[in-house]
Design goal:
Blueprint lengths: L1 E5 L4 H12 L4 E6 L6 H5 L3 E4 L6 H8 L4 E4 L9 H22 L3 E5 L6 H6 L5 H15 L4 E7 L1 E3 L6 E5 L6 E3 H13 L6 E7 L2 E2 H6 L2
Parallel strand pairs: 1-2, 1-4, 2-3, 4-5, 5-6, 6-10, 7-9
Antiparallel strand pairs: 8-10, 8-11
């Protein structure tokens, strides 16, 4: 399976490309914003595709063509304004979904926020609410398609080494999770068709990833 990782230069994206390349039976196409970001991915043997998410759907579709699945793990980051949150986390996600539809790619995995229910928008801090709102509408857009989607809602992200042990469910107690473990959850979702049409929260736990997803 060839997988387009949108937001490959982000922290989850980097882990995911590495996981895919080391799987032995999948390959990654890393979508990046500039050629300067390509070296580390090429060192892993991954294909790269330079594309800015603020371009049009037709341009983004070029990055999608020829892959079997798309993972959206891009984000504007905590140090940008509301404008970038709209343009990347919302519009970039929607355009990626539309590009997948245009290219005939059915499998899409969305990395969302831990809680994107409308209540979460209302209870979020003024600085965080725009991000939650963007993720809410991006998730809604994906749910309304006929794509084979999975929506992953990770808890607070850390740079700790992954343990391979998680707690997943429609609703779990809020907690943290290493980005490396999130990447491995995504890889397992790509390999397990039973995760199609599902969405779940994920935090660190005591159950191996494959087993935890099987129990959903």
């Amino acid at each position: 399976m060839k997988v387009l990782v949108v937001g490959a230069n982000g922290q989850i994206g980097k882990h995911l490309v590495k996981c895919i390349q080391e799987s032995g039976h999948h390959s990654a196409r890393a979508m990046i914003r500039s050629k300067e970001q390509a070296a580390s991915f090429e060192a892993l043997g991954a294909e790269t595709f330079v594309m800015d998410l603020e371009r049009g759907v037709e341009e983004i579709t070029k990055a999608v063509r020829g892959v079997d699945a798309v993972v959206f793990t891009a984000g504007s980051g905590p140090h940008t304004g509301k404008d970038k949150t709209i343009m990347v986390d919302l519009d970039g996600a929607v355009k990626t979904i539309e590009a997948a539809q245009s290219a005939g790619v059915k499998r899409v995995i969305m990395v969302s926020s831990f809680d994107t229910r409308r209540e979460a928008i209302l209870s979020a801090s003024p600085s965080f609410a725009p991000y939650v709102a963007a993720k809410y509408y991006a998730d809604e857009w994906l749910r309304a398609t006929d794509l084979d989607y999975t929506i992953v809602h990770p808890g607070g992200l850390t740079n700790d080494k992954g343990t391979g042990l998680v707690n997943v469910g429609v609703e779990v107690e809020r907690g943290t999770v290493p980005r490396e473990d999130v990447a491995n959850v995504i890889l397992e979702c790509l390999e397990d068709p039973a995760t199609i049409g599902k969405e779940f929260q994920v935090v660190s736990g005591d159950t191996p990833i494959k087993e935890a997803l099987k129990k959903m």
